[in-house]
Here is the input.
Amino acid sequence: MKRQIGAGQLIAVLLCSRIIVTLNFSLGGDTEVLSLATCMGALLAVPITVIISLPGIVFSLKEKSSPVDCAYKICRPLGDVSAVVYTLFFMYIAAITLMRFDAFSLSSMQTVELPVAFSVLMLLPILYMAIKGIEPIARFAGVLVFVAFFAIVVIFLFLIPRMSLYNLVTPFYSGVSEVFKNTALIISNSVEPLMFMFLLKTAKGVKYRHFLIFSAFAVLAIEIILISIVAVLGDFNAIQVFPYYTVSSSIGGAVIERLDALQTGVWTILALIKSAVCIYLAGVCLEKIVPKKFRTLMYIALVVLLGVIIAVFSGDFETLRVKLGIYSSTAVILGATLVVPGILYAVYGIQKAVKSRSGDLQ
Here is the structure.
Protein backbone atom coordinates (compact mmCIF):
# COMPACT_ATOMS: atom_id res chain seq x y z
CA MET A 1 0.00 0.00 0.00
CA LYS A 2 1.44 3.34 -1.06
CA ARG A 3 1.35 5.92 1.70
CA GLN A 4 3.28 8.85 0.20
CA ILE A 5 1.52 11.94 -1.13
CA GLY A 6 2.75 15.10 -2.81
CA ALA A 7 2.70 18.61 -1.38
CA GLY A 8 -0.12 19.58 -3.74
CA GLN A 9 -2.22 16.63 -2.60
CA LEU A 10 -1.64 17.60 1.03
CA ILE A 11 -2.89 21.12 0.26
CA ALA A 12 -5.94 19.60 -1.46
CA VAL A 13 -6.80 17.49 1.60
CA LEU A 14 -6.56 20.54 3.88
CA LEU A 15 -8.68 22.63 1.51
CA CYS A 16 -11.39 19.95 1.39
CA SER A 17 -11.46 20.03 5.19
CA ARG A 18 -11.68 23.83 5.28
CA ILE A 19 -14.26 24.20 2.51
CA ILE A 20 -16.78 21.69 3.94
CA VAL A 21 -16.77 23.56 7.26
CA THR A 22 -17.61 26.85 5.53
CA LEU A 23 -20.19 25.34 3.18
CA ASN A 24 -22.00 23.69 6.09
CA PHE A 25 -21.82 26.86 8.18
CA SER A 26 -24.99 26.80 10.28
CA LEU A 27 -26.80 29.56 12.08
CA GLY A 28 -27.89 29.00 15.66
CA GLY A 29 -25.14 26.52 16.47
CA ASP A 30 -22.38 28.69 14.99
CA THR A 31 -23.66 32.26 15.19
CA GLU A 32 -26.94 34.16 15.07
CA VAL A 33 -26.39 36.10 11.84
CA LEU A 34 -23.72 36.45 9.17
CA SER A 35 -22.50 39.93 8.32
CA LEU A 36 -19.46 41.77 7.05
CA ALA A 37 -18.11 41.28 10.58
CA THR A 38 -17.97 37.55 9.79
CA CYS A 39 -16.00 38.30 6.61
CA MET A 40 -13.62 40.51 8.57
CA GLY A 41 -13.35 37.83 11.24
CA ALA A 42 -12.27 35.32 8.60
CA LEU A 43 -9.63 37.71 7.26
CA LEU A 44 -8.22 38.00 10.78
CA ALA A 45 -8.67 34.35 11.77
CA VAL A 46 -6.61 32.82 8.97
CA PRO A 47 -3.38 34.81 9.59
CA ILE A 48 -3.84 34.42 13.36
CA THR A 49 -4.16 30.65 12.87
CA VAL A 50 -0.99 30.69 10.75
CA ILE A 51 0.91 32.62 13.43
CA ILE A 52 -0.19 30.57 16.43
CA SER A 53 0.47 27.28 14.66
CA LEU A 54 3.88 28.43 13.36
CA PRO A 55 6.04 26.95 16.20
CA GLY A 56 4.41 23.52 16.02
CA ILE A 57 4.49 23.33 12.22
CA VAL A 58 8.11 24.51 11.95
CA PHE A 59 9.25 21.98 14.57
CA SER A 60 7.21 19.16 13.02
CA LEU A 61 8.76 19.98 9.62
CA LYS A 62 12.24 19.96 11.13
CA GLU A 63 11.78 16.67 12.99
CA LYS A 64 9.34 15.05 10.52
CA SER A 65 7.31 14.11 13.58
CA SER A 66 3.72 14.59 14.67
CA PRO A 67 2.92 15.60 18.26
CA VAL A 68 2.27 11.93 19.09
CA ASP A 69 5.60 10.85 17.55
CA CYS A 70 7.29 13.54 19.62
CA ALA A 71 5.58 12.30 22.79
CA TYR A 72 6.85 8.76 22.13
CA LYS A 73 10.39 10.11 21.71
CA ILE A 74 10.11 11.66 25.18
CA CYS A 75 8.83 8.52 26.89
CA ARG A 76 6.51 5.60 26.09
CA PRO A 77 3.76 6.32 28.68
CA LEU A 78 3.46 9.92 27.49
CA GLY A 79 3.27 8.67 23.93
CA ASP A 80 0.46 6.25 24.77
CA VAL A 81 -1.54 8.96 26.56
CA SER A 82 -1.02 11.43 23.69
CA ALA A 83 -2.05 8.78 21.16
CA VAL A 84 -5.33 8.13 22.96
CA VAL A 85 -6.05 11.86 23.44
CA TYR A 86 -5.49 12.69 19.78
CA THR A 87 -7.43 9.62 18.67
CA LEU A 88 -10.42 10.91 20.63
CA PHE A 89 -9.89 14.40 19.21
CA PHE A 90 -9.95 13.20 15.60
CA MET A 91 -13.00 11.06 16.38
CA TYR A 92 -14.65 14.19 17.78
CA ILE A 93 -13.92 16.12 14.56
CA ALA A 94 -15.20 13.27 12.38
CA ALA A 95 -18.40 13.02 14.44
CA ILE A 96 -19.02 16.79 14.24
CA THR A 97 -18.48 16.72 10.46
CA LEU A 98 -21.01 13.92 9.92
CA MET A 99 -23.57 15.24 12.41
CA ARG A 100 -23.38 18.68 10.83
CA PHE A 101 -23.96 17.09 7.42
CA ASP A 102 -26.92 15.12 8.81
CA ALA A 103 -28.39 18.40 10.07
CA PHE A 104 -27.84 19.93 6.64
CA SER A 105 -29.45 17.00 4.79
CA LEU A 106 -32.52 17.08 7.03
CA SER A 107 -33.10 20.83 7.09
CA SER A 108 -32.14 21.67 3.51
CA MET A 109 -32.56 18.62 1.29
CA GLN A 110 -35.45 17.15 3.31
CA THR A 111 -34.87 13.71 1.88
CA VAL A 112 -34.98 11.49 4.94
CA GLU A 113 -36.68 11.33 8.29
CA LEU A 114 -34.05 9.30 10.13
CA PRO A 115 -31.58 11.85 11.61
CA VAL A 116 -28.48 9.68 11.15
CA ALA A 117 -29.35 8.14 7.78
CA PHE A 118 -26.68 9.94 5.77
CA SER A 119 -23.96 9.30 8.34
CA VAL A 120 -24.78 5.60 8.52
CA LEU A 121 -24.58 5.34 4.72
CA MET A 122 -21.19 7.07 4.76
CA LEU A 123 -19.58 4.84 7.40
CA LEU A 124 -18.66 2.00 5.04
CA PRO A 125 -16.97 4.29 2.47
CA ILE A 126 -15.15 6.03 5.33
CA LEU A 127 -13.93 2.66 6.63
CA TYR A 128 -12.75 1.59 3.16
CA MET A 129 -10.91 4.87 2.54
CA ALA A 130 -9.24 4.85 5.97
CA ILE A 131 -8.00 1.27 5.49
CA LYS A 132 -6.64 2.06 2.02
CA GLY A 133 -4.60 4.91 3.49
CA ILE A 134 -3.93 8.56 2.79
CA GLU A 135 -2.62 8.27 -0.79
CA PRO A 136 -5.94 7.35 -2.49
CA ILE A 137 -7.79 9.82 -0.25
CA ALA A 138 -5.41 12.62 -1.21
CA ARG A 139 -5.62 11.72 -4.90
CA PHE A 140 -9.42 11.90 -4.70
CA ALA A 141 -9.20 15.22 -2.82
CA GLY A 142 -6.90 16.63 -5.50
CA VAL A 143 -9.65 16.22 -8.10
CA LEU A 144 -12.55 17.25 -5.88
CA VAL A 145 -11.02 20.50 -4.67
CA PHE A 146 -10.98 21.83 -8.25
CA VAL A 147 -14.64 20.87 -8.69
CA ALA A 148 -15.51 22.54 -5.37
CA PHE A 149 -13.76 25.79 -6.31
CA PHE A 150 -15.39 25.74 -9.74
CA ALA A 151 -18.87 25.40 -8.19
CA ILE A 152 -18.19 28.12 -5.61
CA VAL A 153 -16.88 30.61 -8.18
CA VAL A 154 -19.63 29.93 -10.74
CA ILE A 155 -22.34 30.31 -8.11
CA PHE A 156 -20.72 33.56 -6.95
CA LEU A 157 -20.73 34.93 -10.52
CA PHE A 158 -24.39 34.09 -11.04
CA LEU A 159 -25.24 35.72 -7.70
CA ILE A 160 -23.56 39.05 -8.52
CA PRO A 161 -26.74 40.59 -10.07
CA ARG A 162 -28.61 39.79 -6.84
CA MET A 163 -26.01 41.31 -4.52
CA SER A 164 -26.73 44.61 -2.78
CA LEU A 165 -24.18 46.99 -1.33
CA TYR A 166 -26.75 47.92 1.33
CA ASN A 167 -26.25 44.46 2.83
CA LEU A 168 -22.53 45.09 3.23
CA VAL A 169 -22.71 47.38 6.24
CA THR A 170 -19.56 48.25 8.14
CA PRO A 171 -18.13 45.25 10.02
CA PHE A 172 -18.00 47.40 13.18
CA TYR A 173 -21.72 48.22 13.06
CA SER A 174 -22.38 45.93 16.05
CA GLY A 175 -19.10 46.78 17.73
CA VAL A 176 -15.54 45.53 17.49
CA SER A 177 -16.45 42.60 19.76
CA GLU A 178 -18.59 41.13 16.97
CA VAL A 179 -15.52 40.95 14.69
CA PHE A 180 -13.48 39.23 17.40
CA LYS A 181 -16.34 36.83 18.10
CA ASN A 182 -16.38 35.81 14.45
CA THR A 183 -12.59 35.52 14.46
CA ALA A 184 -12.88 33.07 17.35
CA LEU A 185 -15.63 31.25 15.45
CA ILE A 186 -13.43 30.65 12.41
CA ILE A 187 -10.49 29.58 14.58
CA SER A 188 -12.73 27.17 16.49
CA ASN A 189 -13.35 25.30 13.24
CA SER A 190 -9.69 25.20 12.15
CA VAL A 191 -8.19 21.74 12.58
CA GLU A 192 -6.09 21.97 9.42
CA PRO A 193 -2.81 23.01 11.15
CA LEU A 194 -3.00 19.84 13.24
CA MET A 195 -3.81 17.74 10.16
CA PHE A 196 -0.75 19.29 8.50
CA MET A 197 1.47 18.24 11.43
CA PHE A 198 0.20 14.67 11.31
CA LEU A 199 0.20 14.25 7.53
CA LEU A 200 3.50 15.89 6.61
CA LYS A 201 5.55 12.75 7.39
CA THR A 202 3.60 10.97 4.64
CA ALA A 203 4.14 13.84 2.16
CA LYS A 204 7.13 14.42 -0.09
CA GLY A 205 8.84 17.79 -0.41
CA VAL A 206 6.57 19.65 1.99
CA LYS A 207 7.78 23.08 3.14
CA TYR A 208 6.23 25.77 5.32
CA ARG A 209 5.30 27.72 2.20
CA HIS A 210 2.84 24.95 1.32
CA PHE A 211 0.91 25.69 4.50
CA LEU A 212 0.89 29.37 3.53
CA ILE A 213 -0.43 28.43 0.07
CA PHE A 214 -3.21 26.43 1.69
CA SER A 215 -4.03 29.37 3.96
CA ALA A 216 -4.25 31.77 1.02
CA PHE A 217 -6.66 29.53 -0.90
CA ALA A 218 -8.61 28.85 2.29
CA VAL A 219 -9.27 32.52 3.00
CA LEU A 220 -10.22 33.01 -0.68
CA ALA A 221 -12.82 30.23 -0.49
CA ILE A 222 -14.16 31.42 2.86
CA GLU A 223 -14.55 35.02 1.68
CA ILE A 224 -16.28 34.04 -1.59
CA ILE A 225 -18.79 31.90 0.30
CA LEU A 226 -19.44 34.44 3.06
CA ILE A 227 -19.78 37.40 0.68
CA SER A 228 -22.20 35.35 -1.44
CA ILE A 229 -24.38 34.89 1.65
CA VAL A 230 -24.14 38.37 3.16
CA ALA A 231 -24.42 40.41 -0.06
CA VAL A 232 -27.47 38.48 -1.28
CA LEU A 233 -29.44 37.73 1.90
CA GLY A 234 -28.37 40.52 4.21
CA ASP A 235 -29.93 40.16 7.66
CA PHE A 236 -32.41 37.65 6.22
CA ASN A 237 -29.69 35.01 6.47
CA ALA A 238 -30.54 34.93 10.18
CA ILE A 239 -33.69 32.88 9.44
CA GLN A 240 -31.78 30.33 7.33
CA VAL A 241 -30.20 27.34 9.04
CA PHE A 242 -27.73 26.75 6.20
CA PRO A 243 -27.69 30.06 4.31
CA TYR A 244 -25.21 29.14 1.58
CA TYR A 245 -27.44 26.32 0.42
CA THR A 246 -30.31 28.80 0.36
CA VAL A 247 -28.51 31.27 -1.90
CA SER A 248 -27.00 28.62 -4.18
CA SER A 249 -30.34 26.85 -4.67
CA SER A 250 -32.17 30.13 -5.39
CA ILE A 251 -30.50 30.59 -8.77
CA GLY A 252 -32.98 29.83 -11.56
CA GLY A 253 -32.50 28.04 -14.86
CA ALA A 254 -32.12 24.42 -15.85
CA VAL A 255 -28.33 24.55 -16.18
CA ILE A 256 -27.88 26.13 -12.76
CA GLU A 257 -30.27 23.68 -11.16
CA ARG A 258 -27.98 20.91 -12.34
CA LEU A 259 -25.05 22.87 -10.92
CA ASP A 260 -26.89 23.05 -7.62
CA ALA A 261 -27.21 19.26 -7.67
CA LEU A 262 -23.48 19.07 -8.40
CA GLN A 263 -22.81 21.39 -5.47
CA THR A 264 -24.81 19.15 -3.13
CA GLY A 265 -22.88 16.12 -4.36
CA VAL A 266 -19.60 17.94 -3.79
CA TRP A 267 -20.63 18.77 -0.23
CA THR A 268 -21.38 15.10 0.40
CA ILE A 269 -18.00 13.92 -0.88
CA LEU A 270 -16.15 16.71 0.98
CA ALA A 271 -17.73 15.53 4.24
CA LEU A 272 -16.76 11.96 3.32
CA ILE A 273 -13.14 12.93 2.65
CA LYS A 274 -12.73 14.94 5.85
CA SER A 275 -14.26 12.18 7.99
CA ALA A 276 -12.09 9.53 6.31
CA VAL A 277 -8.95 11.60 6.93
CA CYS A 278 -9.89 12.00 10.60
CA ILE A 279 -10.46 8.26 11.03
CA TYR A 280 -7.21 7.53 9.21
CA LEU A 281 -5.33 9.90 11.53
CA ALA A 282 -7.01 8.37 14.57
CA GLY A 283 -5.63 5.02 13.40
CA VAL A 284 -2.19 6.55 12.83
CA CYS A 285 -2.21 7.74 16.45
CA LEU A 286 -2.83 4.18 17.64
CA GLU A 287 -0.17 2.54 15.43
CA LYS A 288 2.25 1.99 18.32
CA ILE A 289 -0.45 0.69 20.65
CA VAL A 290 -2.32 -1.67 18.33
CA PRO A 291 -0.25 -4.41 16.62
CA LYS A 292 -0.01 -4.09 12.84
CA LYS A 293 -1.83 -7.38 12.24
CA PHE A 294 -4.92 -5.89 13.92
CA ARG A 295 -4.86 -2.72 11.80
CA THR A 296 -8.05 -3.53 9.88
CA LEU A 297 -9.90 -4.53 13.05
CA MET A 298 -8.74 -1.29 14.67
CA TYR A 299 -10.30 0.79 11.88
CA ILE A 300 -13.50 -1.25 12.06
CA ALA A 301 -13.67 -0.55 15.79
CA LEU A 302 -13.06 3.17 15.25
CA VAL A 303 -15.82 3.42 12.64
CA VAL A 304 -18.25 1.47 14.83
CA LEU A 305 -17.45 3.81 17.71
CA LEU A 306 -18.01 6.77 15.38
CA GLY A 307 -21.40 5.35 14.43
CA VAL A 308 -22.36 4.95 18.09
CA ILE A 309 -21.34 8.53 18.89
CA ILE A 310 -23.39 9.85 16.00
CA ALA A 311 -26.43 7.73 16.89
CA VAL A 312 -26.35 8.96 20.50
CA PHE A 313 -25.67 12.66 19.96
CA SER A 314 -26.87 13.51 16.43
CA GLY A 315 -30.38 14.58 17.45
CA ASP A 316 -28.99 17.10 19.97
CA PHE A 317 -26.08 18.27 17.82
CA GLU A 318 -26.97 21.96 17.61
CA THR A 319 -28.00 22.04 21.28
CA LEU A 320 -24.62 20.62 22.22
CA ARG A 321 -22.80 23.20 20.09
CA VAL A 322 -24.74 26.05 21.69
CA LYS A 323 -23.94 24.72 25.18
CA LEU A 324 -20.28 24.27 24.31
CA GLY A 325 -20.05 27.79 22.91
CA ILE A 326 -17.70 29.42 20.43
CA TYR A 327 -15.00 30.29 22.94
CA SER A 328 -15.00 26.82 24.49
CA SER A 329 -14.66 25.29 21.01
CA THR A 330 -11.83 27.71 20.27
CA ALA A 331 -10.09 26.68 23.49
CA VAL A 332 -10.33 22.98 22.50
CA ILE A 333 -8.88 23.66 19.04
CA LEU A 334 -6.11 25.89 20.39
CA GLY A 335 -5.28 23.31 23.04
CA ALA A 336 -4.98 20.52 20.47
CA THR A 337 -3.15 22.53 17.78
CA LEU A 338 -1.04 24.94 19.83
CA VAL A 339 -0.73 24.23 23.56
CA VAL A 340 -0.22 20.45 23.59
CA PRO A 341 2.10 20.31 20.53
CA GLY A 342 3.99 23.33 21.87
CA ILE A 343 4.61 21.65 25.22
CA LEU A 344 5.57 18.32 23.63
CA TYR A 345 7.95 19.91 21.11
CA ALA A 346 9.51 22.11 23.81
CA VAL A 347 10.10 19.17 26.17
CA TYR A 348 11.50 17.04 23.36
CA GLY A 349 13.76 19.88 22.20
CA ILE A 350 15.13 20.35 25.72
CA GLN A 351 15.59 16.61 26.16
CA LYS A 352 17.39 16.37 22.83
CA ALA A 353 19.66 19.30 23.71
CA VAL A 354 20.51 17.79 27.10
CA LYS A 355 21.37 14.42 25.55
CA SER A 356 23.50 16.13 22.91
CA ARG A 357 25.39 18.13 25.55
CA SER A 358 25.87 15.02 27.70
CA GLY A 359 27.34 13.24 24.66
CA ASP A 360 29.74 16.11 24.01
CA LEU A 361 30.91 16.09 27.63
CA GLN A 362 31.62 12.38 27.45
Residues 170 and 179 are 11 Å apart (CA to CA). The chain has 14 helices and two strands.
